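Hi W.,

Here's what went into the run:
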Amino acid sequence: MSYCKQEGKDRVIFVTKEDHEAPSNAELVADDPNDPYEEHGLILPNGDINWNCPCLGGMASGPCGSQFKEAFSCFHYSTEEVKGSECIDHFRNMQECMQKFPELYPQEDEKESSNQPEASSGSDSVAAPTESSASAQESDSVPDNQDAS
Amino acid sequence: MLKCRTVCKKIAPLARASSTLCRQNVRRTGMKHGRILPHVPAVNMATGPAGASRQNQFYVLLVGATCLGGTIYTYQTVTGAQKRYDERFAVLHQATSEEIAPSTQTESPAAEAIGTAEAVSQSEPQAAPAAEEPSPLSTGAEAAPSETTEPLPGPDSALASLKLPSHAPYLLIGGGTASFAAARSIRARDPGARVLIVTDEPDLPYMRPPLSKELWFADDPAVTDTLRFKQWNGKERSIYFQPPSFYISPEELSSAENGGVAVFTGRKVVHMDVRGNKVQLDDNTEISYDKCLIATGGVPRNLQVLERAGEEVLNKTTLFRKIEDFRSLDKVSRNIKSIAVIGGGFLGSELSCALGRRSQDSGLEVIQMFPEKGNMGKVLPEYLSNWTTDKVKKEGVKVISEALVKSVTCKDDQLEIQLKDGRLVKTDHIVAAVGLEPNVDLAKSAGLEVDSDFGGFRVNAELQARSNIWVAGDAACFYDIRLGRRRVEHHDHAVVSGRLAGENMTGANKPYWHQSMFWSDLGPDVGYEAIGIVDSSLPTVGVFAKATAKDTPKAATEQSGTGIRSESETEEVALSPVASTTPAPAVTHKDDYGKGVIFYLRDKVVVGIILWNVFNRMPIARKIIKDGEEHTDLNEVAKLFNIHED
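Here's what came out:
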């Protein structure tokens, strides 16, 4: 049973699990998907890639940023049957660049291929960020490249 | 002053007149008042008429002397100011004379002093901005003290451009969190952008939260050198945002094919010329810019009693903010028996807990004192503040609440802190964590507005101060569309505002909308995340459930596989939820505030939310604040958080 107490101007309510079982009737304002102020996920409403997405970490802003952008854009707009098949050169450039900075881009297979699955499961990765776009847009205080395993 | 003069001017002749009359009347005996008064209708003498004529004289002399003294003082102040103004322009002219072909080079460095004096008397008060004007008044005296030879502007400027870029398309003043976030944002949006960060610290951009938390819990004794810390999940990382290879050197900035971010360490920007779009560093180098960000952060405040206490006390005092402060405090804390932290807010409480943890091994006595009733007294409602104080005490800290420091003296190599209520605290070292003074040194030269309520540079909702100048981070007093004008001193805000400033510098024109959050851990059992305006003076409504062992900060980060709280939300999407194999044993808390949600209300609208030992729900909290709706039953709103689940 929930009970309530008042400590001056502060009210305290204690609730059990059962008290909170019924769904909330609090009304939330519907989100406008085209709100220009809102942060966006990986893909912007107009279909472009949001290079400033925290989910990309420092990939688009580091020394190999331009190579990364080229490769990823090519993949994103690719309409081939095997998506991104024509982008091999771009990805190779990117990989060569990244090899020059082993500190920034740790040379493990998962790291490199992590870009591929993210790219290849295009619709999934789009869905995930945009669904939880509110959470995905937490400002990143940590560059992911930095994480040593 | 002027009023006084006019008044005195009016009174003086009348006073003189009356005093003459008075003197005349004194010679006669049997005075009649009626004759005096018509002559001096406007003067209302405080002293009596006739017989007090001597006093009147004296009074008049006094008034006259005061007016004269005031006039002299005013004159001196004004001329002094004029002199200072002229001197300043002379210095600036000298500085620019290096770049432009000096018209006269007669002054030798030795005669610089004389030259300056001459420049002072000659230079026009309304000289144009200290820009490229080859003013003949600037006598060409050497500006840089290190220069001993005649200036050769040609080769010198060529050398200068090799050493340093004289122009940076994006100039970021300050090398902290906001600056780095802006740099990243600019690079992401403007391909090939050339970004120059100028910082007076010797370090590359780094994050501050671990300095008062994780770094203290590191097992590695070399942590003060490596600055790497192990997160709860075992992953290790450095406090630096990026290793040095991420950056390019300032010399390469102009020529790098794809641009980059260059950091110029150990340099301070001392003057900003907004009209000329350029800044001047402390070594007199000038850098012009297209877009500029001011992210100068702040300096720790100090207590007046400490500043007045003398050098011995100051040598035993730490103001904590930077890496060097962490290093020195770490060293000091290993060699002393007792340490006192003054301040009961975030930094003070976190440091106390960190030192208290250490005290369990070393036997260090850790004292924390503050004027409030409990830890985080200005943030948490009283009942929660009391609860938190108990937790802090359990971390091994001696908490002295309602303590106002009256004086501090050094006796027998120990510090004695005298409190206003008479208590005396003896300790070996003091850490003062009493707030941050935003650094607005550039406001004067740049002509930027400083906010009188919150401090910091006053900027609009888009973080813009002037056309090409933005401000982000601790130093920015900005307009929050939802919550009103404020200045926020938290890490995530620095990231959010830095990013936004970077976006706006590349043409986005977006206002501050994504609400930043903050968090604090006070030991492994108490952790909370918060968002919005969290001020204990606001009415609050708290909804609590009983906590289990799963509801601790440690568990939260272990689950999400991240170390830093604000990061755990971006990473969340990538990881699958960890399924606990066995139900964790319910930890019984003696008190009731295990976990819950606290709403802060202003005019019945939720403006702040604390998630108390409830994690990974920040998006819901953010949404509620964004809506800005009046909710009649906050218990229903609390249901949205599912506080009983993990």
